[in-house]
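In line with agreed milestones, work has continued on tokenised descriptions of protein folds. One protein thus recorded appears below exactly as we store it:

>
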Amino acid sequence: MSQVYILLNEITFKELPSPKLFDDHIHFTASWTYLASMELLSRRGKLIPNYKCDIENTPIAVIVGPNSDIIFYMTTLLSIFSIPQVIYGSSSVTNNNIQGVFFYWMFPDGAYQYKGILQLLLHFRWKWIGVLSQSDDNGERFLQSILPMFAQMGICTDFLETFPKLGFSGELNQMVEEMSETTSIIMGSTANVVVVHGEIQTIMAMRVIPSIADTQDILMLNKAKVWIMTAQMDFTAFPFQRTWDIYFLHGAISFEVHSKDFLAFQKFLQMRSPILEKEDGFIRHFWEAAFLCSLPPLSLENKHGEICTGEEKLETLPGSVFEMSMTAHSYSIYNAVYAVAHALHDLHATHSSKFKQPSMVDRLRWELLNQQPWQLHKFLSSVSFNNNAGEEVSFDQNGELATGFDIVNWVIFPNESFLRAKVGTMEPQAHPDKRLTIHDDAILWPKRFNQVQPLSLCNENCHFGYSRTKMEGKPSCCYDCLPCPEGKISSQKDMDDCFECPEDQYPNNDQDRCLPKEITFLSYGEPLGITLATFALSFSVITAFIFGVFMKYKETPIVKANNRTLTYTLLISLLFSFFTVFLFIGQPEKVTCLLRQTAFGFIFSVAVSCILAKTTIVVLAFMATKPGSRMRKWVGNRLASSIVLSCSLIQAAICIIWLITSPPFPDFDMHSVTEMIVVKCNEGSSIMFYCVLGFMGLLATVSFTVAFLARKLPDSFNEAKFITFSMLVFCSVWLSFVPTYLNTKGKYMVAVEVFSILACSFGLLVCIFSPKCYVILLKPELNNKGQLVRRKNEEQGRLTCN
């Protein structure tokens, strides 16, 4: 690198002419920038552009920045002469591709910064923000780039405001007036986060906000915002702003071009003195403004009462006036100088290879000093080196610095000093999911939020069990929260819609998670199953007992009356009907499902057909007693057996067709009971099931009608009255069964059917056989043939009188 130092010593750095600085005047105007650019192209002290005399130094490269307007105005002139421009400020503001080839940006691709801001907002779940930008082309380009990205990811802006243009500090009143309305909008916004796109001078305008807020009686502590600032910004101020409060910046987060601090840089600053550096006009102006004193020789218009000694220490200044650490902008300038130096070194090395003899050094210097600026492009575009911090510096194919961004948290102290704490990085070269790295615990938030991560939402999150719905006339980030409808849940905040649980799960009461459903069926292990099984067993025992009584007294008149065989068949069918109950209790299996409804339907059809046969025989027997009646040949076991057999066969045929075409099978009912999976027998064909019930109902209706008509026929042991009442009970039970069965869910459907079977069977048993058992067991004197004749005559005499 010795050659580089030689070259730098041979080049005289031009001091640009500075306009007269009035009290705290700051210039951001095109005229002064153009003037400075033309001075670079002129003889020292004379404004004669493009004029050379002998070997006077001419710029081979220019380090430009930090303001985008300065860059734009300078490149208009410098690009004409193909001068390489190493830019350390904002990203490009020109669309001129011809000019763009002369740019070398000490700044990464701005698109990565925008993506970093987006990822930062998403990381902290900030969906409701404000945006402040410059009122220029650069600000417009920023909004055009970032707003569609925000909208695509569901981030809404409460306001879009611009900073006033900065000119002379004498125009401060106008700037304050323009900022007043903006401040009202910012402080009145419900957004707690404000994205600020600006440049190095932007914080000058931002520092006006607390003063305006005071005049508007806005307590800044209660309205504190989290400012997210772009990397082009830096802490700057008008001289008169040095005592202004900067605590409103506490907790701000800014992007900065990746940088490292140097201890040697602080030592370098400690050695600066206007006494030792009289040639440097800038340090004199800075010294007087920073230490509020005047350096000799004093002018007629002494700005400050005190006289500077030149021994003042920069480290004694508060951070709001001067930072001793190397900022990102300083680091960029440092790397820019070394990038040019390395390019010059490579240029020197190329030319030195042509001159082998040491005596040619003077000629080498002459050649270098007369190099054309365009010749440096080749070396500058390919420059790559490690700086003193050990970091590689190089440009990508677009002439932009191949580096990332640091994410910095601004910590403001009571003495108006501040600290930029690095809390994360944005690495463009990393995987998209790993580009943003941020340490949440290291961030200090504004005091208003009590060190809890702020929320920035249009309204509160919709909690679990709720879904959001759009509010009419509001941005998409503003919404109402509606409870999930029955049967649906939301297990996350701010869900657009509730969703149903899987079939084997059901929503809890809060509708925020799914619980596994229990498998259930009518079992012997629960009170309902035990109760029904106990009744079925008890009624079976009673039926068996009655059957035994009838077998024992089978030769008595009361047993013989109305066909003894039908009585036995009826009792046996009732006994089996009680036994069918046990097919309905317990976990359904393939066999039990096949037998449940078919056995129940067939057995009840046999029982009802027996009752129909009994009633028919009573009617025919009475008709046969009339003189000359031809009905006698129909009275007997043959007709009764035919009725029972034909009715039973019809029901059997229906059941067989059912089993062949669409047999019942075990099934899981996921939906009828919310919290249960009901193991049930699927009927296979509902039509066949109701055909079985319908045929049984038809038999019952016919039996009831015939019995009702024959209820007053004279016969000592006439069963028509009892059959009428039993059929009335039977029909009532089954008529109420159908709607009840259809409106019941789960295992209770089975319980309703079991109860109906027990009620009907027991009703038939009690209504038909209890009077006979009463006579057989308690009134045996009535169970004789003489009593039968006597009662028969009494009945006939009563009918004759009537």
